[in-house]
Design brief:
The structure is a homodimer. Helices cover 19% and strands 27% of the residues of chain A. Chain A is of the alpha+beta class. In chain A, strands 2-3-9-8-4-10 form a six-stranded antiparallel beta barrel. The first copy, chain A, has a four-stranded mixed sheet with strand order 11-14-13-12. In chain A, strand 12 and strand 13 form a beta hairpin. The longest helix of chain A has 13 residues. The radius of gyration of chain A is 22 Å and the shape is globular. Chain A starts with a helix and ends with a helix. Chains A and B meet through helix 1, strand 1, strand 2, strand 3 and helix 2 of A and helix 1, strand 1, strand 2, strand 3 and helix 2 of B.
Chain lengths: 288, 288
Amino acid sequence: MISNFIKRYFTNINKGSITNINKFRITFDPIGYIDSVFPKKYGTPRQGILVKESEGSLKILGKNALHMLKGLEEYSHVWLIFCFHQNQHINSKWNNKENRTELKFIEGESRDDLPPTIRPPRLNGKRIGIFATRSPHRMNDIGLTLCKLERIEKDIVYLSGIDLIHGTPILDIKPYIPIYDNVPDASFPQWILDKPNTIETIEFSINSLENLQKLLNSNTENINEAKELISQVLLSDPRSIYRKKKRADQPWGFIVKNLYIQCQIKDETIALIIDIKEKDKFYSDQIL
Amino acid sequence: MISNFIKRYFTNINKGSITNINKFRITFDPIGYIDSVFPKKYGTPRQGILVKESEGSLKILGKNALHMLKGLEEYSHVWLIFCFHQNQHINSKWNNKENRTELKFIEGESRDDLPPTIRPPRLNGKRIGIFATRSPHRMNDIGLTLCKLERIEKDIVYLSGIDLIHGTPILDIKPYIPIYDNVPDASFPQWILDKPNTIETIEFSINSLENLQKLLNSNTENINEAKELISQVLLSDPRSIYRKKKRADQPWGFIVKNLYIQCQIKDETIALIIDIKEKDKFYSDQIL
């Protein structure tokens, strides 16, 4: 059996091109769905590691969750492999389907139609190949993020430093093992180190702080923690290139937990938080 | 639209359990299939980083491959996200199907039937949850491996330090970015540092070296490189627990490139390479 396998498929090895290999379409069922402080794509930071205060949790599906998690609590950090489920190319044809149960390319649709390059925020409009970035807009909508493991309670994994939208389907958790995963002297392009963000200072208006105080239940949540989280999100500058370039001085908002944060960027470097409203009230008032 | 999305799905945030979220089954098409020196699961090292001499390549499928790879050459290391396509649970029901085109659970088959724990080689038989390890036997057959990017030629990515079987379907390539991916002080369980392997010394018999010399085309391949690769594979000790415990002193073999390496472990620490044969000849002689 093995012998036949080898004869059939194991040809042209190390000649740079593989032939006669079986090609597969591969299907996964998520192990769970992330519960995050970021309800939508817009405003979600690009790297969780930059927003240490962001929190989330993952309930593992299946009756054996407790066994599957046994021993994971001994690690301080984990990789999450997830699906960028809000990518437009997988969503555009599904938008009006209430009960969609599968995310995939429509049969017959070619991936060759996807843009093979993107404009990362740091490159100021220059195009680069999708495989040279961590952009969500990739051939397969698979993301990889490193986050801090806070604790495990029964079948729920509590995490911080996450950059995932609420409801993100998680495909796998893998422990972070520094002896395998650290390559401190790995080289990478200079533009990665370029200053990605222009926002340097965060100012809260008196009005916004008063509303924040009212909105938070002071028994369970700390106003300083909320301020810190809002500031970290802004310092990571989640604005799109379009908004930075074309609408830089216009009021702008994003959501964290149950808060809608309305702000304005002054002189490209100062984010003034004008107001903080309750998310649900905001949503019932207007459409984003 | 967004507002409805939030109202419908964004409930119970940060209460540790997510409800009313849409559940998806997710399908991917590989971006390519790995061309590796390891033709089969048996004998493939567990961590590519331990076997720096191992080589492979990945031809990116699709007409836009060159654009998709633009800029990747500026990184020294990359993550490969791949599918453990030879896992038994996805293969057992497919074995006799010559033209399988999809890897997935059979409809109606429950993942609850999969063992939720495994015995990692270092734990000497003790069971641990699948999410606390990098074991291939997981809920979703997704693997994550860090390897060295040697060079890119047209649509082919040349890699080293890989631990992948020939023909492995690759789902994504992501650049390794030390400023995001390095957490040098991350903590992990002590057993990760335990000595995983007992093999310390590699000895080549005169016969094996003579055959190696004959089998390698000295114009293109270097006998010292082959010896180094064989030694690295053995020092990483790819034997199964069963073989280590029950059949430790019996002759044993594995394949690297076109070579079948027959060896015997002496005193649990010395690997004596008895003979080196041509892979194809070996396969035509006997069934593994």
